[in-house]
Amino acid sequence: MADGPQETDGPVEDAVTLAVLGAGGDLFTRLLLPGLASLLADSPGLRVTLVGAGRRPWDDDEFTRLVADGVPEDVRDAPAGRYLLEHVRWAPTDATDADDLRRLLDGAEGRTALYFALPPRVTVECCEVLAGLDLPDGLRLVAEKPFGTDHESAAALNERMRALVDEEDIHRVDHFLGLPSTWTLLSLRLASRALAPLWHRDQVESVGIVWDETLGLEGRAGFYDGTGALVDMVQSHLLQVLAVVAMEPPAAMTSRDLRDQIAAALRATSVWDGDPVASSRRARYTEGTVDGRSLPSYVDEDDVDPSLETETLAELTVQVATGRWAGVPFRLRSGKALGADRSELRLTLRPPAHRVPGLTGDPGPEVLVVDLRTGDLRWELTTSGRGDPSELERTPLVGRLGEPRMEPYGEVLRAVFSGDARLSVRGDAAERCWEILAPVQEAWRSGEVPLEEYAAGSDGPA
C-alpha cells in the first residue's frame, strides 16, 4: 500500500501503549529502555503505558523494578517518568499463542505500538496468529532488523505484516537512521549551498562507509555466531547510510518522497563490476589485546561454533548505476575487536583539473568526513603551508554538533508514536538489501572468498 503523507517531525501523541514482545531480552534493556527514557525527558507531556511480554516467569513488580533501574533518576521523578512506572505491566506471553496475544493487546490506552524484539521466524509466526484476532484501531507494528534472513523470507514477512496494517503503520527499525549523522547528511545534501554540489561523480573519487569497533563478541554468540558482520552491519545499517548518500534529492521531506528516493538508490546498487569475489573480503579475529584487554580468538569465545566460519569483519565494494554516481566505488566495511573505534562516511574528492605552476607539494586528496555516531564534520582542505606559503598542505576544518536531543532509539520511538515513517525502512528497501548481498553470500558459502584472520587490536587483515 502507498505511504501516508508524513510531512514533518510531528508531535508525539499524548497517550500511547508500547507492547514489547521479547522484552526479557538484551535489546530491551540495552537499547529500547534507554531510548524510551531519553524520549520521556524530551517530551514531558508524553504518557506511556509499557507492557512487557515474554516467556520469563516475571510479575508486574519484577518488570517494574527492571524498568526503574534503566530510567535515570531525573526522568523517574518527572511526571512522564512517574506515569510510566505507574503503568508498567508484565504479560507472560508465547508470541505464537492467540490467547496470549489477545490478552496482551486488551486494555491498551491510546495509540498502540506492538514491538517485535524477536527473531524473524518468530515474527512471521506471530503475524500469522495476529491475522486471526481483532486488532486495536490504529495499531502500529515495529520490527527489528534483520528483516527476514534472505530476500524470500523478507518478502514473506512484509506480506504478513501488510495483511495486518498499512505500510505507513509498519516501522522497520534501523537505529542508524535515528543517529544525528543521518540528519547531518540530509542537511548537507539538501540544504547546504557550499556542500550540496559535492555529492556527484564529477567531484567525488570514492566513498567509504566504515563502522569499526574495539568491542569483541561481548557474550552475544547466540545472535552473532552464524550471522556475522555482513548481515549484522552491512546488509542493514551501512546500506541504509549508502542510500541516504546516493539518493537523488526528494521533491519534499515527506515519507513517500524520501523513501521513494532511498529505494531508487538501492535498486541502482550492485556489487562492483558484478564480481562478488574480487569486490568482497571476510575475516575473523584471533587472540590479541584491545585497549589493554586480552581477547581470545573468536573461535575460542563461549558458545561459538567454528564450523560456521562466521566472519567478524566484512568489506564490500559496490556501485550505484546512476548519472550522479556511475564509476564511483562505494566501499563498506565493518569489523569487531579492532584497534580503534571508527565510524565515518568519507568522501574522497577528485584532484583539481589543473594546478597553477609555482604551487608545490603533494598534500593528498581533499576529504569530507561525517562521524556516523555524532554527526560531527571534518573537511580537510588544501591550503598554503605554515612555512613556505607556496608549499601546499591539508588543513582540517571541524564542526561539532553538540549533544543530540535523545538516544537513537528515542528517535525511533518518537517516530513510531508520532506516525513519522520517513526514516523507517520501507518494505521494498528491506527486500532489496538482501538482493544486493545475495551474490556475496553465495560466493562466501562456496568458499570462493577465503576467510582471513587478523589479530584482535590490529587494523584488520593485511
TrEMBL record:
<dbReference type="Pfam" id="PF00479">
    <property type="entry name" value="G6PD_N"/>
</dbReference>
<dbReference type="GO" id="GO:0050661">
    <property type="term" value="F:NADP binding"/>
</dbReference>
<dbReference type="GO" id="GO:0005829">
    <property type="term" value="C:cytosol"/>
</dbReference>
<dbReference type="GO" id="GO:0004345">
    <property type="term" value="F:glucose-6-phosphate dehydrogenase activity"/>
</dbReference>
<dbReference type="GO" id="GO:0006006">
    <property type="term" value="P:glucose metabolic process"/>
</dbReference>
<protein>
    <submittedName>
        <fullName>Glucose-6-phosphate dehydrogenase</fullName>
        <ecNumber>1.1.1.49</ecNumber>
    </submittedName>
</protein>
<comment type="pathway">
    <text>Carbohydrate degradation; pentose phosphate pathway; D-ribulose 5-phosphate from D-glucose 6-phosphate (oxidative stage): step 1/3.</text>
</comment>
<dbReference type="InterPro" id="IPR022674">
    <property type="entry name" value="G6P_DH_NAD-bd"/>
</dbReference>
<keyword id="KW-0560">Oxidoreductase</keyword>
<dbReference type="GO" id="GO:0009051">
    <property type="term" value="P:pentose-phosphate shunt, oxidative branch"/>
</dbReference>
<dbReference type="InterPro" id="IPR001282">
    <property type="entry name" value="G6P_DH"/>
</dbReference>
<dbReference type="InterPro" id="IPR036291">
    <property type="entry name" value="NAD(P)-bd_dom_sf"/>
</dbReference>
<keyword id="KW-0521">NADP</keyword>
<dbReference type="InterPro" id="IPR022675">
    <property type="entry name" value="G6P_DH_C"/>
</dbReference>
<keyword id="KW-0119">Carbohydrate metabolism</keyword>
<feature type="domain" description="Glucose-6-phosphate dehydrogenase C-terminal">
    <location>
        <begin position="187"/>
        <end position="462"/>
    </location>
</feature>
<dbReference type="Pfam" id="PF02781">
    <property type="entry name" value="G6PD_C"/>
</dbReference>
<keyword id="KW-0313">Glucose metabolism</keyword>
<feature type="domain" description="Glucose-6-phosphate dehydrogenase NAD-binding">
    <location>
        <begin position="20"/>
        <end position="178"/>
    </location>
</feature>
